[in-house]
Amino acid sequence: MQYFATIEPQKRMAPHLHTALRGSIPHEVIRQVTAATYHQVWWPHHDQLVYTSGQLPVWQPTVKRFVDPDTRQPLTSWAEALEQLTEPAHVVTFGPQVHSKGILGGTDDAGRHLGYLTKYLVKSVAEIVEAGTEAKQRHADRLHAELSVTPCSPRCAVWLLYGIQPLSVTSQTVPGYCKGRAHRRATLGLPGRRVLVSRKWSLKTLADHKADRRAFVTQALAAVGITKPAQDTSRLIWRKLAPGDPNVPPRAHLLMQAIAERITWRAEYDRAMLVANAPPLSTASVSAIRQAA
Question: Whole-prediction pTM value?
Answer without folding.
Answer: 0.62
